[in-house]
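Quick one, T. Sequence first:
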Amino acid sequence: MRSALDSYINYLKAEKNASPYTVRNYRADLLGSARIKGYFGFLAGKGITTLDGADRYILRDYLAYLAHKGVVKASIARRLSAIRSFYRYLVREELISVNPVQETSSPRLDKKLPSFLTPKEMAKLLEAPDLNTPIGLRDRAYLELLYASGLRVSELSGLNMEQVDLDSREIRVWGKGSKERMVLMGEPAAETLKRYYTHGRPLLPDPKRSKNRKIKRTDAVFINDIDGGRLTERGVQHSLRKYAAGAGIEKRVHPHMLRHTFATHLLDGGADLRVVQELLGHTSLSSTQIYTHVSKSQARKVYLAAHPMAQEDDSEPDE
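C-alpha cells:
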C-alpha cells in the first residue's frame, strides 16, 4: 500500500498541482502520527494489508476511533476528504474496482463564523512596521496587499514581480487548483509597494544576517532578509503575530484573518456578493456567503450599541 501512496502523492503534485500544504496534510492524514493512527496504520491494526481489503464499516470504525481520541470534527472531515481522494485515485488507476468510502458522509460541522479585524484594529496593524527599515517597508507592503486584495498567504508568498501591474493596480494570481484570477489593490497598497520596491527590496538581505551565506537571486516580490530568497508563509505568520502584539490587538491574528477582514469590510461597504466571490477566487458562492453572516452579526452589534431605542434601560424606576 505504501507504493500506492507514493504514486498518489506524485499524482497530487504533478497532475492536480496541489499546494505543498495540501500534499503535506493529505500525506500526514493517511500516515498518522505517534499519538493518533493514520488510516494506513488503522488498517494494519485490523490486519488489512491490501488496497481492496477495506469496506465502509472499517472506515466508520476509523472515524469512531478518531472521535474517541478527541479529534475535532473539522479534522475528522479533513482526514475523510484525504481518504476519499486517495480511493478516487485508486479507482481511476484501476487499482481497485469499488470505492468503499463513496457512500460515507462527512461529520456535520458546527458553523463557525470567521474572525476578522475591525477597521480601527486594521489601521493599528498597518502602522506597526517601522518604515525606516527595509524589513519594515517590506512588511508594511505585504500587510497592505493582504488587506487590499484578499490574497491567500500562499499566493502572497508565491507572488512574482511580473504578476503585479502597479499602473493598473492589478495582480494576476493562481489560486487553488491553479485557477487563474485577477485581483485588485487600492492606491495606498500600490504606493506602499512602490516604496518597498525602491527603498526596501534593493537593501535586502540584511548584510549582518547574510554573512557567509550564498545570496539567492529571485523574482519573488517579497524576499527574506537572510539570503534574499522568497519570503515564506511561516515568515509572514511569525512577523504578523509580532506586529499584532505590538499594536495591542488581543485577537489571535493570522494571515487568513486579513482575507476574512478584506471580505467582511467589502460587504459592510455594500459590495455585491458575486464580486467578492470573484475576488476571493471561491468556486462556490456558499463559501463566500458565510461573510454575509459576519456582516449581519456586526450590523446587529453596531445597532444595539448605537440606537437609543435598542438599548436597555438600566435606570432605576421612578418612585
